[in-house]
Structures are given as C-alpha cells and as structure tokens.
Amino acid sequence: MASSAPRTASNDGVIEAAKAALGDLIAEVKDHVGEVTLTVRREGVEDACRLLRDTPGLEYQQLMEIAGVDYPNRPDRFEVAYHLLSLTQNRRIRVKVSTDEATPVPTVTTLWPVAGWLEREVFDMYGVTFAGNQDLRRILTDYGFEGHPQRKDFPLTGHVEMRYSEAEKRVIYEPVSLAQDFRSFDFLMPWQGPEYRLPGDEKAEPQAAGAASPAPATGTAPQVKPVAASEKRDPDKPYAIDNEDRKQAGAAEAEAEARKPNQDKAAQVGGVKTDIEEPKPGSNNPASQGGPEAQ
Q1: Structure pTM?
Q2: Residues with Cβ < 8 Å from 287, sequence gap 6 or more?
C-alpha cells in the first residue's frame, strides 16, 4: 500500500557524514524505520545544529519543530527533540538532548529565529529553560499559571481554576473544586453490555394483563394512534394526545383572555381582585365573545 506521506531521499551515507562533521558532539546514533536520530551532548547542541545546517552534503537548512518529552524516572527526565529538514537533499533528521529540571539547554535562536517561539512552547509545557533565549516566557497558558501541563506528574484537574467574579468584576483564580465525585465504570465491551439491571429496565418488557411473570416481547414497538378533535376520546389517553389537548385548551384560554375588554384587563393589573368573572373557553360569558365593545 502506497504511503500518503511525501517521499524523501534515502538516508544512505547520512550517519557517516554526520559523525565526520560532528565528531565528539554525538553521544548516540539510531536509524529506525527510515528515520535517523542523533543524540548529542547538551552543551553542544547549538554547534551540532550549525554543522548539520552548513556542512555540504548534509545541508539541513530548516528547523521544523522543537518537541519536549518527559521521562520522570530518569535523572535527566526531559528530552528536547529538534526536527530538521534539508530542502536541497530532501531528507529529514532528528537531534535530541537530555536535561533535568534545573539545567538549561543552549538556545538555537542564533541559527533559526523561529526557534524563539518553539523554545517558549517547550518551556511553557515542560519547564525546560533555554540559555540565551531573550524572550523566554509562557506562550500557551495564562499569566500566573502554576506548573507545566505536559509533565507526567501534573494533575489532570490542574492546581487552580479561573472564573469571572460578578461581585469583584474581575477574573479570579481559586483552588480546584470538583463539581461531582469521580464516577465508577465497569469498562465492559460495548457490544456485550452489563449483566446487572438498572432501575426502569422492567418497563421495556411488555406485561400481559394479569400475568404473574413478564410476557414475551412481541418485537413490535407500541403504536400511538392520533385521535381527531371530533372523535370521542377514551379516558385513558396516550400521553402524546393528552399533551396535545392541554396545548389546545391553553391556547383557547389565552385567546379568551386576549379578547377581554380593556377596562376588565385594567382592573386586574397588579393582582387586584375584581367581581369580573374569568372567561372560560366555549362558555356564554360575554367576555369570551368580545364583550359589549365587540358587538
């Protein structure tokens, strides 16, 4: 099956050329699934990237991305990965360095100005600092944000939550308070379903009249037959029909209220009790017919 990714040139000879150019700066080399990864010494990452950019035959001119990775169990828990692209050779390479929470990594903004934004993102998400970056501040989180969200030990709920206070007319930060307890799930396969019964499940099983046990299901959904307004309705009407009747009755009452004379309406403003009888739909009350003014 053909890959949807654009084809790149072969990496034959890249590792040998990189070793010859970088020398002792390389700590480890890995070639896996067609991707070459160079692990270099932290203090030499700027020189290594410069050599990869300027050495003929390598010519990785463009910095595509800087990514962070967190391994909490390692002494140097963070990895910073630089993804480089050679436009002339049509090849890619990855450069990695390791560091801890306190030791900064040299900046590569001297080689690619765009690295300023990328280093700010790694600093914001992981807390890795970059020596020489003149504008190392948060880029994705808010001012005053505590912690670094992409660290493995960062709580999923965060440390604080933000909301707008109508009382203080400003945005305030408060400790996180969960709105409800964590729910428990049984994690069963969705096509198997749970073995227990939930309240209300018995309503899905049709019951025969006077049966001591549930009758077998017919496999046919219950049918609700609409009843015309002129037909005589049964006392036990389906819910949908009863709801429709209530809507029609409410509309009739609203129409009767609207047809009341203005003086009658004025007498009832503010809940003042009057001797005027409320009109009823279908009654012979003059108000329901529009009153004297309607004649």
Answers
A1: 0.59
A2: 256, 259, 260, 261, 264, 276, 277, 279
